[in-house]
Amino acid sequence: MKIAFNLLVLGAEITTAHARQLERLKALGYDAVEIPVFSGRQEDYADLGRLLRDIGLSAGAAAVAPVEANPISADPLVRQRASDHHRWIVDCTEAMGGEVIAGPVHSPVGVFTGFGPTEEERSRCVDAMRALAGYAAPARIRISAEAVNRFECYLMSTISAASAIHRAVNHPNYGYMFDTFHANIEEKDPAATYERYHREINHYHVSENDRGIPGTGHVPFTAHFEALRRCGYDGWLTVESFSRALPELAGATRVWRDLFDDLDHLFSESVAFIRHEWQAAGERVTSKTEGSP
């Protein structure tokens, strides 16, 4: 298991100028970071990747599908832009030595038609995800599409919807993410949902109900961590929290107030919480297993 941090809390463009924050994350015990791959040059991501390796942090990409490059658009020219954008994400992720591309790469966030997804949109999504997974496979970069709640997305808002697309894509390099914030909104029993689909889930976001510091709200993390331990999860546990630092992102995520005192408090409290919950859940699961008849 690796403890990671999604760096969107610092902004949409992470560069070598963020060396101090990256070194602090490593000193606190983080193993990896998710880097926003929204814009920039491959050369810049290569420079950042060298810095991350020097510090000792693994890298992954946090990525989205822009409106102008919508993979499920009825316009073939827009879908071609989406394909080009997906390839660009893979190329930038490979340049920085990234292991995973995680996020709502399936469709734009905040774009709605007023209806649920059509069969044609699902089919376009499947084609786009299969092509993305195939392009990323030679670079050994896994794809983890994110199920995003219905207030942000209409194509893939539940784990069951993500699973249906996963089965249709049917590519060994394609999986999807479990995010505790979105699951807290959409799933009747989030921990049980994870257990049901865990073989298809290849990435995990630890995110509180208000998107502040994990463990300070009402997400049932005890049940979540027990489910992870029972299912033998051994991937990344990525903290995802948001701030008002980036106005565009604050608007998209509806963050109108400060959710933590300062970044260092967020960094240190989050990693300590995950370490504690992971160990405690392991002890409880082991005790229950040993006590079974």
What does this molecule look like?
With 293 residues, the protein is an alpha/beta fold. 46% of the residues lie in helices and 14% in strands. The protein has helices spanning 19-28, 42-55, 76-95, 119-136, 159-169, 180-186, 190-197, 221-230, 247-253, 263-291; strands at 2-6, 32-36, 58-62, 98-103, 142-146, 174-179, 201-206, 236-239. An eight-stranded parallel barrel has the order 1-2-3-4-5-6-7-8, surrounded by seven helices. Helix 8 links the parallel strand 7 (201-206) and strand 8 (236-239). The longest helix is centred in the last third of the chain and has 29 residues, at 263-291. The two termini are 29 Å apart.
Q: What key attributes describe this structure?
A:
293 residues, alpha/beta, TIM Barrel, eight-stranded parallel β-barrel, 14% strand, globular
What top-tier CATH class fits best? Alpha Beta
User: What's the domain count?
Assistant: 1
SS-based class: alpha/beta
Discrete helix count: 10
Cα radius of gyration in angstroms: 18 Å
Main sheet: strand order: 1-2-3-4-5-6-7-8
Which shape, going by the Cα principal axes?
A: globular
Just name the CATH architecture.
Answer: Alpha-Beta Barrel
Strand content: 5-15%
CATH superfamily: Divalent-metal-dependent TIM barrel enzymes
Helix content: 40-55%
| Major sheet size, sense and barrel closure | 8 strands, parallel, barrel
pLDDT < 50 stretches: none
What order do the SSEs take from the amino end to the carboxyl end, as H and E? EHEHEHEHEHEHHEHEHH
User: What is the typical, i.e. mean, pLDDT?
Assistant: 94
Number of strands: 8
What is the CATH topology assignment? TIM Barrel
- Termini separation comes to 29 Å
